Amino acid sequence: MDPFVAVLMGGTSSERSVSLSSGHACAEGLARAGYRVARVEVRDDIAEKLLQIRPSVVFNALHGTGGEDGAVQGLLENLGIPYTHSGVMASALAMHKINAKHVAAAHGVPVAESIVVSAADASASHVMQLPYVLKPVADGSSCGVHIVRSGEAPPQLATNEAESADVMAERYVPGRELTCAVLGGEALGIIEIVPKDGAWYDFSAKYEIGGSRHICPAVLPPDIEEKILRYSEIAHRAIGCRGVTRSDFRHDPDTGELIWLEINTQPGMTPTSLLPEIAAHHGLTFEKLVSWIVEDASLRR
């Protein structure tokens, strides 16, 4: 008999709306695939709700702080309920952009120079040579990201733009926006994202219908394609991930530079998300994708 799957969605992070979209899509896909499914919209009452319904497995569709940083993973370990995606340590490491970059770089993956500074310092003066990018150290979906271009003044950061008062300043890498999906440790494919009107890949470009154009598969020089596939697998293994991940890259065709930006341990599963599109191109329907993710669930820190 197929397991009883509780799909966690919502949460309290800045990515709550994305998580709800992902969660409902995954619940519908699992139901179509024949699973018994409970949709569990949560804030801070996850344990109570799970103890009431007693699922045999949890599909973690939470995004952002509390959902993919090791916190809910630790709770599920203590409850003894197998769950999808990466475990406690890998989730916490991947969520912290600076620490994840250190690990990836130590395994030969190319990253851009970056530093951690306070939001107050980043607002007061330029913290590195222009152009650069300011990002929350631990957040996703392009929340709180600022590109500081040549000639611009430092942005005035509100401390609530990030989950902490610290932000990461990273050298800006021009060029193409690329992402690679990894399934069970093996690279699945690469997609290129072209935001509309020449904008950057911000929240609206990611989640609004028509916000960006996706080229799948990405048309790349063979050597760059091979490197992206290989670096994505290396990062997945080095950080200790399991299940599905998605690594983001920038490639400057003028200089040939290729930079790994970060790894997403719980990629979005919304109607405009990249992982399902890559999977579909390789013959993996949405129903098969979410079923694979559930079958991969386990208890492992």
UniProtKB/TrEMBL annotation:
It is found in: Cytoplasm. Pathway: Cell wall biogenesis; peptidoglycan biosynthesis. Residues 101-295 form the ATP-grasp domain. GO terms for cellular component: cytoplasm. Keywords: ATP-binding, Cell shape, Cell wall biogenesis/degradation, Cytoplasm, Ligase, Magnesium, Manganese, Metal-binding, Nucleotide-binding, Peptidoglycan synthesis. Its cofactor is Mn(2+); Mg(2+). The active site is at 15, 141, 273. Its EC number is 6.3.2.4. Mg(2+) 2 binds at residues 262, 264. It catalyses: 2 D-alanine + ATP = D-alanyl-D-alanine + ADP + phosphate + H(+). One of its GO terms (biological process) is regulation of cell shape. GO terms for molecular function: ATP binding; D-alanine-D-alanine ligase activity; metal ion binding. HAMAP family: Dala_Dala_lig. Belongs to the D-alanine--D-alanine ligase family. This is D-alanine--D-alanine ligase.
